[in-house]
TrEMBL record:
Domain 3-hydroxyacyl-CoA dehydrogenase NAD binding stretches: 15-200
Species this protein is from: Elysia marginata
Example GO biological process: spermatogenesis
Annotated positions for site Important for catalytic activity: 156
Protein name: Hydroxyacyl-coenzyme A dehydrogenase, mitochondrial
Cellular localization per UniProt: Mitochondrion matrix
Subunit text: Homodimer. Interacts with GLUD1; this interaction inhibits the activation of glutamate dehydrogenase 1 (GLUD1).
Binding-site residues, NAD(+): 20-25, 43, 108, 113, 135, 159, 291
Biological or metabolic pathway of the protein: Lipid metabolism; fatty acid beta-oxidation
GO cellular component: mitochondrial matrix
Amino acid sequence: MIVRAMSSSTQPIKTVAIIGSGLMGSGIAQVAAASGHKVTVVDQSQEIVDKASASIQKSLGRVVKKKFPDDSKAQQTYIADVMSHLSLQTDAVDAVKSADLVIEAIVENLDVKKSLFSSLDKAAPPHTIFASNTSSIPIKDIASSTTRLDRFGGLHFFNPVPVMKLVEVIRIPETSDETYSALEAFGKAVGKTTVQCKDTPGFIVNRLLVPYMMEAVRLVERGEATPRDVDIAMKLGAGYPMGPFELSDYVGLDTMKFIIDGWMEREPNNPLFSKSELLNKLVAEGKLGVKSGEGFYPYNKK
Ligand SMILES: CCCCCCCCCCCCCC(=O)CC(=O)SCCNC(=O)CCNC(=O)[C@H](O)C(C)(C)COP(=O)(O)OP(=O)(O)OC[C@H]1O[C@@H](n2cnc3c(N)ncnc32)[C@H](O)[C@@H]1OP(=O)(O)O
Ligand SMILES: NC(=O)C1=CN([C@@H]2O[C@H](COP(=O)(O)OP(=O)(O)OC[C@H]3O[C@@H](n4cnc5c(N)ncnc54)[C@H](O)[C@@H]3O)[C@@H](O)[C@H]2O)C=CC1
């Protein structure tokens, strides 16, 4: 059953523009297209969107193996159907002109996000709802670059999007009830469980996850254990699917650094968020985790 989300003018959300086709944007695009939405995904170059298209097809390949075991025709038909709901391009302004909902999933940098939303605000129709997938930046700070505070909120998905079942739906004081309901309905329409949270640092999950991850890196920096032993300990001793260093490599160390730097800037006296020399060194060396082929651990280059 497809649950249709409503746009702020109470029309169903049918068309979605997703800006940023990296780890998160491609995952969100996949689940939105798979639930029957017409999706346009935008990134900065054709090469990047081509890579995103390949990664969505690869992920769909994993989905269909479970959905249609031993039926390769049904597998191919499903993938073709989902892909037919998706188009990929490089012009964000053009992409939002017919969107009911715009979801931003670009680099975790306030100025870059504001500059993007400011230009999209002028191009999108009045009814279009804007949402950011930010991990750590206050939604109100991003929304301030637009004139549609009542049609702005946060939709925070989790990585890997096709697998993780949660979406945090964030409202700022100005978010209208209609917009909030539309965002919540969209989260459900793409098959997720939604939770509501105010626009507080880290929302729910990252408010708890970031201090844990930071303490893991400090433990290693103090020479008390190796990353590998910490990861083994948290998987076998606490039942986590990934240890903190595996998860860091999976999230992307550049994104982790953006998150922690932003938090440090906003709360300079909070010792939970003091910087990590080890993280900064890895990022400076271009070791960004799984996506670059090396982070805390080496990976096969894709
Ligand atoms: C230490 C540094 C300190 C820095 C401090 C800074 C801190 C900042 C931290 C903040 C991070 C913020 C990020 C954010 O905003 C929020 C997040 O998203 S946090 C991340 C949340 N995600 C997780 O916690 C993931 C945990 N891991 C897992 O759940 C599993 O390991 C995973 C599902 C990824 C893989 O499972 P595994 O069993 O290991 O491997 P399999 O390959 O067998 O997969 C299992 C199952 O899932 C299917 N699958 C996996 N990936 C995909 C995909 N991309 N698409 C489709 N399907 C996929 C796969 O097919 C398997 O299905 P089966 O049916 O079981 O075969
Ligand atoms: N990596 C993770 O586990 C999670 C990340 N997030 C958040 O999602 C957002 C995206 O993160 P990722 O997908 O991991 O990053 P990523 O680095 O994989 O992808 C970001 C993409 O945005 C593109 N981009 C940058 N500026 C752009 C612009 N002006 N216009 C169009 N595209 C642009 C980049 O080319 C890149 O492809 C960030 O805000 C991050 O904090 C949220 C949940 C989990």
